[in-house]
Amino acid sequence: MSSPDSNLLSINTATVRAQWSLPEIVAGCARRGIGRVAPWRDQVAATGLKESAQRIRDAGLALSGYCRGGMFPALDRGGRRAALDDNKRAVDEALSLSAPCLVLVVGGLPKDSAGRPASKDLASAREMVRDGIGELLEYARPAGMPLAIEPLHPMYAADRACVNTISHANDLCDELGAGVGIAVDVYHVWWDPALRSEIERAGGHSGRLLAFHICDWLVPTTDLLLDRGMMGDGVIDIPLIRSWMESAGYRGAHEVEIFSAGNWWKKDPDEVLITCIERHRTVC
Predict the structure, then answer these.
(1) N or C end of the chain: which has fewer CB within 10 A?
(2) What is the DSSP letter of 145?
(3) Is pLDDT of 238 > 80?
(4) Is CATH 3.20.20.150 correct for 6-283?
């Protein structure tokens, strides 16, 4: 298959967050001819929302998404209300930054004050996720901010996301209606036997495929959160998954999102960006 369009390359700011602040990431991407970024809320907060938006505009960059909302489950009604209020703020920030979508990492089992799982009721957590997204949609839909559910690998079901397959995300989209779609991250879904058919299912609904995140799965993986691989260094067939996305109608950005405490976060950030550009061209 043909090489991907270089204009579709985006850098999720997590990829070089250990080395650079958000203003430095924006400047570095602009310097390397990368036209899109996906910033994280904490980085935006550290810089300031207005300044972040201005710097991104002045650099001529666009967003491929905004990270992140979600984390809906909580032990009580007050906790769930606080999560909803925070998600509304995330919607407002995404609008100020002209993001095409707000990515949702939905949350896992409710946690106690020390951050430890305080329940084993996964079905209830999933109900809280459904209800939380539904409530947030009442705020986001009139504002015109799409919500992108990101299914995470099952290893994160307890602590980060109890939506673990595109099938589950599709079911939620079917139930909740317009304004909610899916962020497909190859790191989390490459293993799924139903991946192709569920991408096709999502593609049957105009606008449901909202984001496409790329990196690689290393063998062995030494840390389940912080040892993602650069594209081409692992076992994911990224061009194949890209072909399924494109066949399903996706025409959006290819967002590089790499958490790599032991490798890429230790390298010169310009070198990381150069490698992202080259690998996107040659192995994606």
Answers:
(1) N
(2) -
(3) yes
(4) yes
pLDDT value at residue 3: 87
Direct distance between the N- and C-terminal alpha carbons of the chain, in angstroms, rounded to an integer: 10
Estimate the crossing angle of helix 77-96 against helix 49-58, to 10 degrees.
Answer: 30
Task: Report residue 94 as tokens.
Answer: 């995404």
With CA atoms as reference, report the closest residue to 111 among 158, 143, 70. 158
- As given in the structure block, the two tokens for residue 73 are 């489950």
- Counted residue by residue, the chain has a size of 284
- Residue 3 is classified by DSSP as P
Distance CA 104, CA 85 (A): 14
The distance from CA 258 to its chain's CA centroid, rounded to whole angstroms, is 11
Would you place residue 37 in the very low, low, confident or very high pLDDT band (cuts 50, 70, 90)? very high
pLDDT digits (tens, 9 = 90+) for 115-139: 999 999 999 999 999 999 999 999 9
Give the three-state DSSP class for 172: helix
Q: Which of 102, 110, 41, 105 is nearest to 78 (CA)?
A: 110
pLDDT at 2: 81
